[in-house]
Protein backbone atom coordinates (compact mmCIF):
# COMPACT_ATOMS: atom_id res chain seq x y z
CA UNK A 1 0.00 0.00 0.00
CA UNK A 2 1.27 3.52 -0.74
CA UNK A 3 2.02 5.83 2.16
CA UNK A 4 -1.16 7.78 2.93
CA UNK A 5 0.57 10.32 5.16
CA UNK A 6 1.41 13.91 4.25
CA UNK A 7 5.06 13.41 3.22
CA UNK A 8 5.72 14.13 -0.49
CA UNK A 9 7.82 10.93 -0.66
CA UNK A 10 6.45 7.38 -0.90
CA UNK A 11 7.20 3.78 -1.88
CA UNK A 12 4.57 2.11 -4.06
CA UNK A 13 3.93 -1.34 -5.52
CA UNK A 14 5.66 -3.30 -2.77
CA UNK A 15 4.39 -5.61 -0.05
CA UNK A 16 4.00 -2.76 2.44
CA UNK A 17 4.26 1.01 2.58
CA UNK A 18 7.97 0.50 3.39
CA UNK A 19 8.83 -1.20 0.07
CA UNK A 20 8.41 -0.45 -3.62
CA UNK A 21 9.24 2.11 -6.29
CA UNK A 22 10.47 5.40 -4.85
CA UNK A 23 8.27 8.32 -5.89
CA UNK A 24 8.36 12.04 -5.06
CA UNK A 25 5.40 14.38 -5.50
CA UNK A 26 5.57 17.15 -8.08
CA UNK A 27 2.56 19.41 -7.55
CA UNK A 28 -0.32 16.94 -7.90
CA UNK A 29 1.74 14.34 -9.79
CA UNK A 30 3.93 11.57 -8.37
CA UNK A 31 7.11 10.80 -10.33
CA UNK A 32 9.65 7.98 -9.81
CA UNK A 33 13.30 8.60 -8.92
CA UNK A 34 16.52 7.51 -10.64
CA UNK A 35 20.26 7.76 -10.03
CA UNK A 36 22.87 5.04 -10.64
CA UNK A 37 24.95 5.93 -7.57
CA UNK A 38 22.45 5.17 -4.79
CA UNK A 39 23.60 2.90 -1.97
CA UNK A 40 21.98 1.36 1.10
CA UNK A 41 23.28 4.39 3.04
CA UNK A 42 21.32 6.67 0.71
CA UNK A 43 18.22 4.48 0.92
CA UNK A 44 18.44 4.64 4.72
CA UNK A 45 17.67 8.39 4.56
CA UNK A 46 14.39 7.63 2.75
CA UNK A 47 13.53 4.84 5.20
CA UNK A 48 13.93 7.27 8.10
CA UNK A 49 11.93 9.96 6.33
CA UNK A 50 9.05 7.49 5.93
CA UNK A 51 9.37 6.35 9.57
CA UNK A 52 10.17 2.84 8.37
CA UNK A 53 12.95 0.63 9.74
CA UNK A 54 16.43 -0.01 8.37
CA UNK A 55 17.33 -0.03 4.65
CA UNK A 56 17.40 -3.64 3.43
CA UNK A 57 17.81 -3.29 -0.36
CA UNK A 58 18.02 -0.73 -3.15
CA UNK A 59 17.91 -1.58 -6.83
CA UNK A 60 17.73 0.21 -10.19
CA UNK A 61 14.96 -1.34 -12.32
CA UNK A 62 14.82 -0.88 -16.11
CA UNK A 63 11.43 -0.13 -17.68
CA UNK A 64 10.34 -0.50 -21.32
CA UNK A 65 10.55 3.20 -22.24
CA UNK A 66 11.71 6.57 -20.97
CA UNK A 67 9.40 8.52 -18.70
CA UNK A 68 9.56 11.73 -16.63
CA UNK A 69 11.50 11.12 -13.42
CA UNK A 70 13.28 12.96 -10.64
CA UNK A 71 17.04 12.61 -10.86
CA UNK A 72 18.16 12.67 -7.23
CA UNK A 73 21.91 12.45 -6.70
CA UNK A 74 23.00 10.20 -3.85
CA UNK A 75 25.77 12.69 -3.08
CA UNK A 76 23.11 15.30 -2.26
CA UNK A 77 20.91 13.10 -0.06
CA UNK A 78 21.80 13.66 3.62
CA UNK A 79 20.01 12.74 6.86
CA UNK A 80 19.35 16.38 7.76
CA UNK A 81 17.61 17.21 4.45
CA UNK A 82 14.43 15.99 2.83
CA UNK A 83 15.01 13.94 -0.34
CA UNK A 84 12.97 16.57 -2.19
CA UNK A 85 15.73 19.14 -1.67
CA UNK A 86 17.88 17.18 -4.15
CA UNK A 87 15.44 16.67 -7.03
CA UNK A 88 16.13 17.58 -10.67
CA UNK A 89 13.63 16.91 -13.44
CA UNK A 90 14.76 14.50 -16.17
CA UNK A 91 13.78 11.45 -18.28
CA UNK A 92 14.94 7.87 -17.78
CA UNK A 93 14.08 4.22 -18.46
CA UNK A 94 15.30 3.33 -14.97
CA UNK A 95 13.60 3.74 -11.61
CA UNK A 96 14.75 3.01 -8.07
CA UNK A 97 13.07 0.39 -5.90
CA UNK A 98 13.73 0.32 -2.16
CA UNK A 99 12.96 -2.07 0.66
CA UNK A 100 13.00 -0.90 4.25
CA UNK A 101 12.21 -3.14 7.20
CA UNK A 102 8.70 -2.58 8.54
CA UNK A 103 9.00 -2.95 12.29
CA UNK A 104 12.64 -3.32 13.41
CA UNK A 105 15.68 -1.09 13.09
CA UNK A 106 19.18 -0.64 14.48
CA UNK A 107 20.10 2.94 15.45
CA UNK A 108 23.31 4.79 16.41
CA UNK A 109 25.51 1.96 15.10
CA UNK A 110 28.72 1.99 13.10
CA UNK A 111 26.92 0.48 10.07
CA UNK A 112 23.40 -0.43 8.96
CA UNK A 113 23.95 -3.89 10.51
CA UNK A 114 24.74 -2.61 14.01
CA UNK A 115 23.10 -0.43 16.60
CA UNK A 116 20.60 -0.23 19.45
CA UNK A 117 17.55 -2.34 18.62
CA UNK A 118 14.21 -0.58 18.27
CA UNK A 119 10.89 -2.26 17.51
CA UNK A 120 7.80 -0.57 16.10
CA UNK A 121 4.58 -1.42 17.81
CA UNK A 122 1.77 -2.74 15.64
CA UNK A 123 -0.64 -0.90 17.89
CA UNK A 124 -2.35 2.36 16.95
CA UNK A 125 0.39 4.69 18.26
CA UNK A 126 3.02 3.16 15.90
CA UNK A 127 5.89 4.25 18.17
CA UNK A 128 9.45 2.86 18.17
CA UNK A 129 10.51 1.15 21.41
CA UNK A 130 13.85 0.05 22.86
CA UNK A 131 14.15 -3.58 23.98
CA UNK A 132 15.48 -4.72 27.34
CA UNK A 133 18.39 -7.17 27.30
CA UNK A 134 16.54 -9.58 29.62
CA UNK A 135 13.74 -9.95 27.03
CA UNK A 136 16.01 -10.82 24.11
CA UNK A 137 18.40 -13.71 23.36
CA UNK A 138 20.62 -15.15 20.60
CA UNK A 139 17.71 -16.73 18.71
CA UNK A 140 15.86 -13.43 18.70
CA UNK A 141 19.03 -11.76 17.39
CA UNK A 142 19.26 -14.29 14.54
CA UNK A 143 15.76 -13.31 13.41
CA UNK A 144 16.52 -9.57 13.52
CA UNK A 145 19.77 -9.91 11.54
CA UNK A 146 17.97 -12.02 8.92
CA UNK A 147 15.06 -9.56 8.71
CA UNK A 148 17.54 -6.72 8.02
CA UNK A 149 19.34 -8.67 5.28
CA UNK A 150 22.54 -8.87 7.36
CA UNK A 151 24.68 -11.85 8.35
CA UNK A 152 24.49 -13.82 11.59
CA UNK A 153 24.68 -11.95 14.93
CA UNK A 154 28.26 -11.48 16.11
CA UNK A 155 27.80 -9.26 19.19
CA UNK A 156 24.79 -9.03 21.51
CA UNK A 157 25.40 -6.71 24.44
CA UNK A 158 23.47 -4.21 26.52
CA UNK A 159 24.13 -0.48 26.14
CA UNK A 160 26.64 -1.05 23.33
CA UNK A 161 24.97 1.68 21.25
CA UNK A 162 23.33 3.88 23.87
CA UNK A 163 20.99 3.63 26.83
CA UNK A 164 17.32 2.64 26.89
CA UNK A 165 15.13 5.33 25.42
CA UNK A 166 11.43 5.54 26.20
CA UNK A 167 9.10 4.08 25.26
CA UNK A 168 10.23 0.53 25.98
CA UNK A 169 9.05 -2.81 24.58
CA UNK A 170 7.21 -4.49 27.44
CA UNK A 171 7.16 -8.22 26.52
CA UNK A 172 9.82 -10.89 26.18
CA UNK A 173 10.47 -12.19 22.67
CA UNK A 174 10.43 -15.98 22.31
CA UNK A 175 11.76 -16.68 18.81
CA UNK A 176 12.70 -20.14 17.59
CA UNK A 177 15.38 -18.58 15.37
CA UNK A 178 13.76 -19.61 12.07
CA UNK A 179 11.19 -16.81 11.77
CA UNK A 180 11.52 -14.24 8.97
CA UNK A 181 10.45 -11.27 11.13
CA UNK A 182 10.75 -10.45 14.83
CA UNK A 183 7.05 -9.66 15.22
CA UNK A 184 6.25 -13.16 13.87
CA UNK A 185 7.81 -14.60 17.04
CA UNK A 186 5.83 -15.58 20.09
CA UNK A 187 6.09 -13.26 23.07
CA UNK A 188 5.49 -13.65 26.79
CA UNK A 189 2.12 -12.93 28.33
CA UNK A 190 3.64 -10.92 31.18
CA UNK A 191 4.78 -7.34 30.72
CA UNK A 192 7.86 -5.47 31.96
CA UNK A 193 7.58 -1.92 33.24
CA UNK A 194 11.23 -1.15 33.97
CA UNK A 195 14.61 -1.82 32.40
CA UNK A 196 17.85 -1.16 34.29
CA UNK A 197 20.28 1.43 32.90
CA UNK A 198 22.78 -0.11 30.50
CA UNK A 199 20.42 -2.93 29.54
CA UNK A 200 19.06 -1.75 26.16
CA UNK A 201 19.77 -4.39 23.51
CA UNK A 202 22.75 -3.48 21.35
CA UNK A 203 23.26 -5.77 18.36
CA UNK A 204 25.96 -6.23 15.73
CA UNK A 205 25.21 -8.50 12.79
CA UNK A 206 28.08 -9.82 10.66
CA UNK A 207 28.56 -8.61 7.10
CA UNK A 208 30.18 -11.63 5.39
CA UNK A 209 32.77 -10.98 2.65
CA UNK A 210 34.91 -13.55 0.80
CA UNK A 211 37.23 -14.10 -2.16
CA UNK A 212 36.44 -17.25 -4.18
CA UNK A 213 37.94 -19.13 -7.12
CA UNK A 214 41.55 -18.06 -6.57
CA UNK A 215 44.66 -19.92 -5.46
CA UNK A 216 43.94 -19.18 -1.78
CA UNK A 217 41.29 -17.61 0.42
CA UNK A 218 43.13 -14.30 -0.15
CA UNK A 219 42.58 -14.18 -3.92
CA UNK A 220 39.65 -14.49 -6.32
CA UNK A 221 36.24 -13.00 -7.11
CA UNK A 222 35.02 -10.60 -4.43
CA UNK A 223 31.63 -11.68 -3.06
CA UNK A 224 29.35 -10.21 -0.42
CA UNK A 225 26.54 -12.05 1.34
CA UNK A 226 23.27 -10.11 1.38
CA UNK A 227 19.81 -11.36 2.33
CA UNK A 228 21.22 -14.88 2.61
CA UNK A 229 22.81 -14.97 -0.86
CA UNK A 230 26.43 -14.57 -2.01
CA UNK A 231 26.75 -12.11 -4.91
CA UNK A 232 29.86 -10.86 -6.73
CA UNK A 233 30.89 -7.23 -6.49
CA UNK A 234 31.16 -4.86 -9.45
CA UNK A 235 32.33 -1.29 -9.98
CA UNK A 236 34.69 0.30 -12.46
CA UNK A 237 36.74 2.64 -10.26
CA UNK A 238 38.14 0.31 -7.60
CA UNK A 239 41.81 0.94 -6.85
CA UNK A 240 44.43 -0.85 -4.77
CA UNK A 241 43.55 1.57 -1.97
CA UNK A 242 39.93 0.34 -2.00
CA UNK A 243 40.98 -3.30 -2.35
CA UNK A 244 43.24 -2.86 0.69
CA UNK A 245 40.12 -2.32 2.85
CA UNK A 246 38.85 -5.79 1.85
CA UNK A 247 42.27 -7.42 2.32
CA UNK A 248 42.50 -6.01 5.85
CA UNK A 249 38.97 -7.16 6.65
CA UNK A 250 39.87 -10.70 5.53
CA UNK A 251 43.16 -10.62 7.49
CA UNK A 252 45.00 -11.07 4.20
CA UNK A 253 47.67 -8.40 4.39
CA UNK A 254 48.04 -5.73 1.72
CA UNK A 255 46.39 -5.54 -1.72
CA UNK A 256 48.48 -6.75 -4.65
CA UNK A 257 46.07 -6.37 -7.57
CA UNK A 258 42.50 -5.49 -8.46
CA UNK A 259 40.99 -6.02 -11.90
CA UNK A 260 37.60 -6.16 -13.54
CA UNK A 261 36.59 -9.31 -15.41
CA UNK A 262 33.85 -9.36 -18.04
CA UNK A 263 31.44 -12.27 -18.07
CA UNK A 264 29.45 -13.50 -21.08
CA UNK A 265 26.19 -11.94 -19.88
CA UNK A 266 24.65 -9.78 -17.16
CA UNK A 267 24.37 -11.31 -13.72
CA UNK A 268 23.07 -10.13 -10.37
CA UNK A 269 25.88 -8.18 -8.70
CA UNK A 270 26.50 -5.92 -5.74
CA UNK A 271 27.47 -2.50 -7.19
CA UNK A 272 29.80 -0.98 -4.57
CA UNK A 273 31.16 2.55 -4.80
CA UNK A 274 34.89 2.91 -4.21
CA UNK A 275 34.78 6.39 -2.66
CA UNK A 276 32.15 5.24 -0.17
CA UNK A 277 34.35 2.32 0.97
CA UNK A 278 37.38 4.59 1.30
CA UNK A 279 35.37 6.97 3.50
CA UNK A 280 35.23 4.22 6.12
CA UNK A 281 31.72 2.89 5.53
CA UNK A 282 30.99 -0.83 5.61
CA UNK A 283 31.06 -2.57 2.21
CA UNK A 284 27.39 -3.51 2.40
CA UNK A 285 26.34 0.08 3.22
CA UNK A 286 28.07 1.26 0.02
CA UNK A 287 26.23 -1.14 -2.27
CA UNK A 288 23.27 -1.33 -4.61
CA UNK A 289 21.83 -4.40 -6.35
CA UNK A 290 22.23 -4.39 -10.14
CA UNK A 291 22.59 -6.62 -13.21
CA UNK A 292 25.97 -6.24 -14.85
CA UNK A 293 28.52 -8.38 -16.76
CA UNK A 294 31.61 -7.07 -14.94
CA UNK A 295 32.89 -8.48 -11.63
CA UNK A 296 35.89 -7.64 -9.46
CA UNK A 297 38.85 -9.95 -8.87
CA UNK A 298 41.22 -9.15 -6.01
CA UNK A 299 44.56 -10.54 -4.95
CA UNK A 300 45.87 -9.87 -1.47
CA UNK A 301 49.40 -10.61 -0.32
CA UNK A 302 48.18 -13.14 2.21
CA UNK A 303 48.84 -13.22 5.91
CA UNK A 304 52.56 -13.26 6.62
CA UNK A 305 53.79 -15.36 9.50
CA UNK A 306 55.80 -13.57 12.15
CA UNK A 307 59.39 -14.54 12.57
UniProtKB/TrEMBL annotation:
One of its GO terms (cellular component) is membrane. Keywords: Disulfide bond, Glycoprotein, Repeat, Secreted, Signal. Signal peptide: none annotated. Residues 9-109, 104-206, 209-286 form the SRCR domain. The keyword Disulfide bond applies. It is found in: Secreted. Its main location: secreted. InterPro entries: SRCR (IPR001190), SRCR-like_dom_sf (IPR036772). PROSITE patterns: SRCR_2. Disulfide bonds join 76-86, 175-185, 276-286. The keyword Disulfide bond applies. This is SRCR domain-containing protein. It comes from Sparus aurata.
